[in-house]
Specification:
Blueprint: H1 3-20, H2 26-39, H3 54-57, H4 59-69, H5 72-75, H6 77-83, H7 85-98, H8 103-114, H9 119-134, H10 140-153, H11 158-178, H12 185-199, H13 208-219, H14 223-229
Helix pairs in contact: 1-2, 1-4, 7-8, 7-9, 9-10, 9-11, 10-11, 11-12, 11-13
Length: 243
């Protein structure tokens, strides 16, 4: 069973226990998602780093599976409101960033939804968009659209959005390596540059070293495959840490 399938299995098991609990809570959900990810031997959905709050961030993945995969938002409304209060706002903000509209108007609506908007909030929304793609619920074009819109609507967080854009490109490249679309160094370089151009966010190109680290975590791609594609790679000095 590949890494993505094991992650989904962990999320479903965590949600099953959460539903069965007499006192479902956000804290319990975080404990359950950590327990089941560890039980199937897979890392949380993340980039090269493993921040202390990564399992809290994995509540986004749990929410996506609960709503898009299992339809729990209609049958377990009280539980969803109690456990996934933050993710409900990310979902709403994602929809606002997905539609056409003047930047200032979108910004005002998001502030009404979120209450307080900071760089952490914006990167969580972007993580929500990326998770929808990674778990096969939305096309990659939607992630690109939301990233571009966020970059224009919240220019004060451009550094954080740029770092997250590198994570997005790395996940997409990892998918294409897994599928056999990217097979060698030339194809890798062409694809990386094209994705960066399509992103339309300056300095969003990830280093080869970072892409390799993401590929290992997200899809557990083996060293021999990566060595063939990233041969003669020299790590960039650019920081690629996603938020």
């Amino acid at each position: 069973m590949n890494a993505k399938r094991r992650r989904v299995k962990a999320y479903v098991n965590a949600l099953s226990d959460l539903i069965s609990s007499e006192n479902p809570s956000r804290e319990l959900a975080i404990q359950l998602v950590r327990k089941y990810l560890e039980s199937v031997g897979v890392e949380p959905f993340r980039g090269a780093s493993k921040p202390d709050d990564i399992y809290e961030k994995e509540m986004i993945s749990l929410y996506v599976v609960a709503t898009r995969g299992l339809g729990m938002d209609s049958e377990y409304r009280d539980l969803m409101n109690r456990v996934f209060d933050k993710e409900l706002t990310y979902d709403h903000t994602y929809l606002l960033l997905s539609r056409e509209g003047p930047d200032e108007s979108v910004r005002e609506e998001i502030q009404l939804v979120a209450g307080r908007v900071d760089e952490s909030y914006i990167t969580r929304v972007l993580r929500y968009a990326l998770t929808l793609y990674y778990l096969d619920f939305e096309p990659f074009e939607n992630v690109m659209k939301v990233l571009k819109k966020a970059y224009h609507v919240f220019p004060e967080y451009d550094d954080s959005i740029r770092r997250f854009a590198r994570f997005v490109i790395s996940v997409k490249m990892s998918d294409e390596i897994l599928q056999g679309i990217i097979k060698n160094r030339v194809e890798k370089e062409i694809r990386k540059q094209l994705l960066s151009l399509e992103m339309e966010i300056p300095k969003s190109t990830p280093s080869d070293d970072y892409v390799m680290k993401v590929a290992k975590v997200v899809h557990e791609i083996n060293d021999s495959t990566l060595t063939k594609i990233f041969e003669e790679t020299q790590s960039s000095k650019t920081s690629d840490t996603e938020s």
